[in-house]
Structures are given as C-alpha cells and as structure tokens.
Write a structure and sequence with these properties.
Layout lengths: L4 H7 L33 H12 L19 H11 L27 H9 L19 H11 L13 H10 L14 H15 L20 E8 L2 E6 L9 E6 L2 E3 L1 E5 L5 E6 L8 E8 L6 E7 L2 E6 L2 E4 L3 E3 L19 H4 L9 E3 L1 E4 L5 E2 L5 E6 L5 E5 L5 E5 L3 E10 L5 E11 L5 E5 L3 E5 L1 E3 L2 E7 H5 L2 E4 L4 E3 L1 H5 L1 H4 L2 E8 L9 E4 L4 E5 L4 E7 L5 E9 L1
Parallel strand pairs: 11-19, 21-30
Antiparallel strand pairs: 1-2, 2-6, 3-4, 3-7, 5-6, 7-8, 9-10, 10-13, 12-17, 13-14, 15-18, 16-17, 18-19, 20-24, 22-23, 23-28, 24-25, 26-29, 27-28, 29-30
Helix pairs in contact: 1-5, 2-7, 3-4, 3-7, 5-6, 5-7
Length: 551
C-alpha cells in the first residue's frame, strides 16, 4: 500500500514549492494577488480566481517575491499549513515544540510549520511516517492529497482496494476536489493543492487564520442590495453588502408589479447573484425592481432602469441597449488568451470585431406597420468618446462592436445610412464594469453516442467535450458561447470537465478509463460502455451529458 496507512494520512499534506521557500512563517506586509507573480500570467482565469481567493485568506504565499511556483511539487510541511487553514482548525502560533523528532522550531526549512503540523495531528488528519518522525520535506502524491482532504470533510475513504488510492481519487474527482484523469501515484503539484484546497474550503465552509476561530458560514441575516443592473437583455446582476446563505436567499424580479421568471446563479463569494431570464425572455424598456427575501424579515428591494432600445432620432430606426461589458483588457484577462489548449489568441480576444467579449451595436429597422425589417449592415463608422474605457471596431460587413478596456462609462457614436441613403448620427451610452467574466449557466445535450475503434486489441474513443456535449455557456454579462466559442474563451469562463460513473461490460473484464485534457480532449480506453460527462462551473452549477460508447 505504499509505506503504510500512516503515510497516506500524513504524506497527504504537502504542497508545492521547495521546502525552504514555501509559505513563510509570517504573512507578507501586503496581500498579493496573481498579478504579482510572473509564472501565473498564462494561467486560466478560473484557476487564477481560486489562487487569489486563497492568497487573500493567507492560505498560500509565493515561493519568491514574483514567483508562485504553480507547477512545483509540495512538501508535507507545506500542506500541513494549508489543510489546517482550509478546514478552519485552531492553530496555536505559540507552539514551538513538535511531537516529532525531525521537526524542530529552529529548522530554517520547516521550523515555521510546527504549529500547523501539531494542529493537524491533534485533529486526527496527520500521523508521522513513524511514531517519532514526520518527514516534513517529503513530497506528497495525488492519492495521499485526496485522502487527507476527504478525511477533513468527514468522508469515508476505502484504502483496501487496488491501488489503495482508487476510491480517494474517485471521490475527490466527483466532488471537484481533484481534476479528472489524475494518477493517484503521481507527485502532487501546487496546482493540485490550489484546486483541492479551494474546493475543500468551499465544501467545508471554513478558512481560518492562525489564532483566529474558524469562520462561520455566510450570514443568515438579511443583507442589503448595493447595486442591481442589467448586464444584457437577458441578465441582471445583483451585488449584496455581505455573503449570504444562498440556500435561504430568494430573489424576485418585477416590472409594473408583474413577476419576471428568473433562474439564479451565485458567485464564489456568495455576494453577487446573476438573474437569468427564463424561456428566452428579454428585458424591455422600463423600471425593474429586485427583491431579496428568505431571511425571516421584510424583503429588501432595489430598482433600476433599463433601455431596451435607444432612439436614433430617425423614424423607424432604433438601437438596442448594450447593457454592461467587462474590462477584459485592463484587468489582464486577455493575457490568458494564449492560443493554446484551444484558446483564442490575445489578438483575437482584444479585437472588437472578433472578440466574444465585445457586444454588437444593433440597429432595429421597422416599417410603417411596425414590423421589423431585415437590413444588411448599415453602420458607416463608429467611435468612442473614451477609447481608454471602451474600444470600438467596424467589421467589413458594416457592423459595429464595442469592447471593454477599463472600468468606466463612455458614449458610442455611429454614423449609418437610412433607407433614403442619408447619413445619420446616433449615440448610446456604455458602462464598462470590473466584475470578472465567468460562466454562470450552461446547457448541453442529455444523451450522446460515440463509437470506439480497436487497435492491437484495445478499444479507444477520442472526441472533444465541448462539441460532443453540444455545450452552450452563458457568462455574467449575458454573452452566449457555443461549443468552440466556449473552448476558445474558457480561460475566462472557467469550465472544468469531469468524467463520472464510468461503466463497463462485466463480461469484458475490468472497467476501462476516461480522461479529459485541459483542452477538452476526451480519451476513452478499454472496457467502457457509458459514463457521465459533467461540465462544472466555478459557481457550482453544472450540466451533465450521458455518454454511450458503442463498438
């Protein structure tokens, strides 16, 4: 079983960097973000968000002033600190004596970890390699990492199978603690620990700091609505003054006392809700009221206005409202558009005429009867009053687009030709927000069939998860991404694929394997007849397609 069950519990507590440069004993003077580390420039936005959350809570630090060490391995001492913080264990920083002979307070490499090792041992999460030694500088495997995190969540882990870590990796993958396709015998990296630590902290609801009590669950008291605004014709974003218990919170959206059906998605911090109109309904011009209730007292309300169309001053021609757009350039989001793993390039992501982050300035033309008339692109030019806030572009087919650069407001001006061939000028306002782009809702086909081929007696099947699921993702700015578009912009959307409930034909021997690469490439090998392919979003929402493999 690999050293002994003690090693599983213990060794499962490490985390990247080198043993010396890990998490310093004392926190930095100022909290750093992913923007401070040069090796995180091309990391997915979803992973960056998790790292930022853990940095802010003091769970992680870099290996140096400008290096996070995302791909480095982790030591048992390093993970001892992380596991105590994410599970909210009480840490007594005054402890300087360890119960293990190889962990000394004056050890420059691992002495800082004494309080964390003792706290984790006291909680029953960590044992030594032997009764007297801990091996603080040893690396941790994925299987060991998953086992400890699951134990911290009070999950029962079966270590009697072969290999011993199979159940731990399976459970961790299903819970989202571990990414799909990981080999439990491989050495864990800081990436593995970031994902595991973040997801475990979300499931546990705790992230305490040394000498602080464990944090409580989000507030069950009534919160106030700080802001509510339309992000697009089908999306309303509501910001609260505190994190809330999302199981209790309930929203109602109304216009003229009539309720507008919506679905609700929450941000990771439980302070921002995205309301998506159901049944392809769209907001119309007027005043809307959002009500937040579910906490026992009176509901709180917030009203906002929405202009579904903006007058051009020209009879029969109006412009659709843009809603809000994201500051994708100033926020450095587009730096993650590397052109790798199926992502678009940075040039594409920052081109208003090509980027999915941009919104089109749409003109609506109606005839004398009020019917909408289809017309080709009629925009001749487009400008922005402040290109630092909003960039604009005109495509070859005379369509105008606006892309957010920096948070703020700007006025977009267009020149178009009407039916009489006259050149007219019209303007509309645009608001650029700093709320990070993320997927809030996804849709996919329910069932899909794929075929396996055989080579040298081994059956395999390879396909793209985005295409196979017919995946559609919607971000918090009301933008829809179809299949390849979702893949191209997943550095922002943060979608993770999980193969679950893998089934084989009992008559054909052991069940085979299913792995999903970071680019969405699915590889099925061996005896697999069906499995569930789940696309999981950073807000916890997910959508699943049943995959059937035929020979």
């Amino acid at each position: 079983m690999h050293k002994s069950l003690k090693v599983i519990a213990t060794a499962a507590i490490a985390f990247s960097m080198s043993a010396t440069a890990v998490m310093a004993e004392t926190p930095a003077a100022a909290t750093k973000t992913t923007a401070d580390f040069t090796d995180l420039v091309q990391v997915d936005a979803g992973l960056k968000a998790k790292i930022d959350a853990l940095l802010a809570k003091g769970v992680f630090e870099g290996v140096s002033a400008d290096t996070f060490g995302i791909n480095q391995t982790m030591t048992r001492a390093q993970f001892a600190k992380v596991v105590t913080l994410i599970l909210g264990l009480q840490v007594d920083s005054s402890v300087t004596s360890s119960s293990f002979s190889d962990v000394q307070a004056d050890d420059a490499a691992n002495g800082w970890a004494v309080p964390y090792i003792e706290a984790a041992k006291k909680a029953g999460l960590i044992d030594g390699i032997t009764d007297t030694t801990f091996a603080p500088g040893d690396n941790v495997t994925v299987g060991q990492l998953d086992t400890v995190l699951l134990k911290g969540l009070k999950k029962n882990v079966d270590v009697t199978g072969s290999p011993w870590y199979a159940d731990a990796v399976k459970q961790a993958t299903e819970l989202g603690i571990q990414t799909a396709g990981k080999d439990g015998a491989s050495v864990a990296t800081r990436t593995d620990l970031v994902i595991g630590a973040y997801e475990t902290s979300q499931l546990a609801g705790n992230t305490a700091k040394p000498d602080e009590p464990s944090t409580t669950t989000p507030s069950t008291e009534q919160a106030a609505i700080k802001d509510a605004s339309a992000m697009g014709p089908q999306t309303v974003q509501v910001s609260l003054d505190r994190a809330v218990d999302t199981a209790k919170a309930s929203f109602t959206l109304q216009k003229n006392a009539e309720t507008v059906p919506v679905s609700v998605s929450w941000s990771d911090d439980k302070q921002t809700a995205t309301l998506s109109l159901k049944d392809d309904a769209q907001l119309s011009t007027g005043t809307y009221t959002v009500s937040l209730g579910g906490f026992g007292g009176a509901s709180v309300t917030y009203s906002f206005s929405y202009d579904a169309s903006v007058s051009t001053g020209d009879t029969g021609i109006t412009m659709e409202g843009l809603g809000a757009i994201a500051n994708v350039i100033d926020s450095d989001l587009t730096e993650a558009a590397t052109g790798e793993n199926g992502y678009v390039t940075r040039d594409v992501a920052e081109d208003p005429t090509l980027s999915m982050f941009a919104k089109e300035v749409k003109l609506k033309v109606t005839n004398a009867s009020g019917d909408t008339v289809a017309v080709p692109g009629i925009i001749q030019s487009i400008t922005s009053s402040d290109s630092v806030v909003a960039r604009v572009g005109l495509s070859s087919d005379h369509k105008g687009y606006v892309l957010g650069n920096e948070a703020g407001t700007a006025t977009i001006s267009i020149v178009y030709k009407n039916a009489q061939g006259e050149s007219k000028t019209a303007t509309l306002p645009v608001t650029v927000k700093s709320d990070k782009v993320t997927a809030v809702k996804a849709e996919a086909d329910t069932k899909v069939q794929k075929y396996a081929t055989v080579t040298d007696g081994v059956y395999t099947s390879d396909f793209n998860a985005y295409a196979a699921m017919n995946l559609k993702a919607y971000d918090n700015y009301g933008i829809k991404y179809d299949k390849e578009e979702a893949q191209g912009y997943n550095f922002a959307l943060g979608i993770i694929f999980l193969p679950e409930h893998i089934v084989g034909d009992p008559a054909n021997g052991p069940t085979g394997t299913v792995t999903v690469g970071s680019n969405g490439a699915v590889h099925v090998e061996g005896n697999v007849t069906q499995f569930d392919l789940t696309a999981k979003l950073t807000n916890g929402n997910s959508v699943t397609t049943e995959m059937y493999i035929r020979r």
